[in-house]
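Reopening this ticket.

The earlier resolution said the output was attached, but the attachment link was broken on my side. Pasting everything inline this time so it's all in one place.
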Amino acid sequence: MKLLVPVKRVIDYNVKPRVKADGSGVELTGVKMSMNPFDEIAVEEAVRLKEKGIVTEIIAVSIGVTQAQETLRTALAMGADRAILVLTDASPEPLAVAKILKALVEKEAPQLVIMGKQAIDDDMNATGQMLAGLLGWAQGTFASKIEITDGSAMVTREVDGGLETLAITLPAIITADLRLNEPRYASLPNIMKARKKPLEILAPGELGVDVSPRLTTIKVSEPPTRKSGIKVASIEELVSKLRQEAKVI
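Inline output:
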């Protein structure tokens, strides 16, 4: 079974983002970038499925600037077989990303797409659901456990008050939650091998997708500074402050 894993290049999760001085966006110059953590979990799950003999080929896909090749090489070092970069200097919105992935699915004909539930740079949590809608495929979102059997997948996901298990028919889209697994570190030999694995570069136009933005960012600003809290001696004092000072009750 062929499996496709989209991966996104984002600001490393250990870096505190800074807003540009003109408020036009987040500063990326000189900032450490890495693979979106949820996508890293998706790659790990794909590799585990291959190690179990369920998956025969893993294709890592990224959409973005030339430097996104580094993110794809990381996926290749973890165990992906080959990679595709859809090269663009634009920042495609979720619908454009979903349309590009739809075109790649039609080109590569995988039976399963595993991807992070969201990217940590915009937290939109939309692409997987849009891709499932465009393809008309089943979807299992926020997966914390995946079991693949003949022609179907059992996806366990967290819901309010417990766990929900879905049976979905392949082909399908599954988005990964944090609890799905713990990604492996790529070994040095695998990093060296990844340099020789095939990496194809395409343009959005070759896939027939227009990545022109439909949204306009008006302003980006830092969140307001949080005020320090206080301790109260009793419930009565707490109620009094909520009523007299905060005026919320």
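Reporter confirms the inline version is readable. Helices lie at 37-51, 68-78, 94-108, 127-135, 188-194, 235-244. The chain has a mean pLDDT of 92.
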